Input
Amino acid sequence: MKHSFATCAAAVALALGASAVQAQSTEVPFYFPVAVGGPITKIIDQFATDFNKENPSIKVSPIYAGSYQDTIVKALTANKAGTPPVASVLLSTDTFTLIDEDAIVPIDNFVKTPEDKAWLGGFYKAFLLNGQIGGKTWGVPFQRSTVVLYWNKELFKEAGLDPNKAPQTWAEMTSMAQKLTKKDASGKVTQYGVQIPSSGFPYWLFQGLTTQNDVILANEAGTQTKFDDPKVIEALQYWVDLSKKHGVHPSGIVEWGTTPKDFMEKKVAMIWTTTGNLTNIRTNAKFDFGVAMLPAGKKRGSPTGGGNFFIFKKATPAQQEAAFKFAKWLTQPARAAQWGIDTGYVAVSPAAWDTPALKKYAAEFAPAAVARDQLQYAVAELSTHDNQRVTKAFNDGLQAALTGSKTAEAAMKDAQKEAERLLRTYK
Output
């Protein structure tokens, strides 16, 4: 599903020749992070078609640019080359990077009417945390999530646990996982109790543990991290101990991408993953499962996650206004509700949860509301200046501890040193 910018531009040019009305249309190339084709590209294509029909003077063209990582690289490369997207959905944590690259404009620039103000004020506050910097709103929430716990009710029943009760605390999660771990005659584990993925973006899953241990990883200005805080080290030790000490969690690096599959194949009884996997698991799991807020350490907590909608600076004023119109259109309550139902991402405003469609869905399928209810305990996702390199240093540290090549303490001290080196120029 990956298109090059050139082929998209060519397709756009062809389509433009189709009618005189469209000859005046404002082009909005829209970069969207999808690594592979599938249901999400179909939904976004339909959104673009519907929006273009309702707004014949605008032509939104989705460009599927790969993973979030690929998409920001492509967007910034195109921006430097002078052909940036007009709009893009990128990780909310990329906000500092996009500001530092002078690539985006604040959304506030386009908020003029009372209706615009009501729209901007209508999002869940937790989802705005990563997009609001220096008193300005740089991106609005669209494809958003939190981390939640999924559990297999059948395996709980088999293990003599209450199938309708998820672990409420770290201690409960450990003891339940011990009952849920199975071994064959040779002592090889055939079913793990719990799995928290550690490839891709281990920092995000780990932020569940640090928030629960009552510690915030970076300051709001994005210039200072606390990776070597004793509470951070303690949270990492808990994660390491799940496999090293208790044997209830796979050892080494656990793949992000295969975790839902491991759950559906009953290789593991409980997993931590994004609410964005909810529809996938609901469609494909052949057993009854539950979804719960993450268990509490000193308190409950999860980072928010996912993508915000950004408008690029080098676009023409007409393109920027068109992109703003599209952003408002995408996040209207009924549309945000349907997007949540179709994908499992969290509808981004209380108004969306008040729509008849989402009320009915949440009443019939209670797990859909878990992530929304967890927002009261949610914190901003880890984000700093030079975010990709700082996060990489942190991820490397987490993986070093999980693979046993460093102690939790040494790994976090090293990660902190590297983060301080990278952030020195931003202080």
Q: What stands out?
A: The domain at 5-145+305-372 is CATH 3.40.190.10 (D-Maltodextrin-Binding Protein; domain 2).
